[in-house]
Amino acid sequence: MISIPRAFVxxxxxxxxxxxxxxxxxxxxxxxxxxxxxxxxxxxxxxEQIKSNPTRYKFILSDLSMPEMDGWELLYEIxxxxxxxDIPVIALTAHAMIGDRERGIAAGFHNYITKPLxxxxxxxxxxxxxxxxxxxxxxxDAV
Length: 143
Hints:
The protein is an alpha/beta fold. It has a single domain (12-130), classed as Response regulator (Rossmann fold, 3-Layer(aba) Sandwich). It is built from six helices and five strands. Strand 1 (12-16), helix 1 (20-32) and strand 2 form a beta-alpha-beta unit. The longest helix is centred in the N-terminal third of the chain and has 13 residues, at 20-32.
C-alpha cells in the first residue's frame, strides 16, 4: 500500500484526459489525497464545466493530446477568461522531450507531469509543483 499525503483535503480539482486509465489513476490518487475530483475525457466538456463555475477549481490537470480540443486549446481558453486565468493548469503529457517544459510554461501551463503517472510519486510531484505558488505554499507547507 502506498502512502498518500492528505495534501488536498476538500480541494476541488479537474482532471482532463481522453485515456480512461490515466484519468482513473489520477482521480483515485487525488481522492486518496483528500481532493474532490471532477473528470472529463474531452477538452470541450472540461471547458463547459469550467465556464459553469469559474472559481470552483483549485487546479486543473490536463492531457495535452486529445481529439477535438487538445490541452493547448483548453489552456488558451482558460487563460482568456479573467475569472479563470489564475487557475493553475498542469499538463499531463507523454511528450517529455527537451524544450517541452519550457514550451508549456511559455504557453501558460504552471508546469507539467510526465505520463505514465507513477502512483508512488504523483501526489508528491503535484505538491512540489504547487508549492512554488505563494497562495498555495502556506497551504502545503505542513505536507
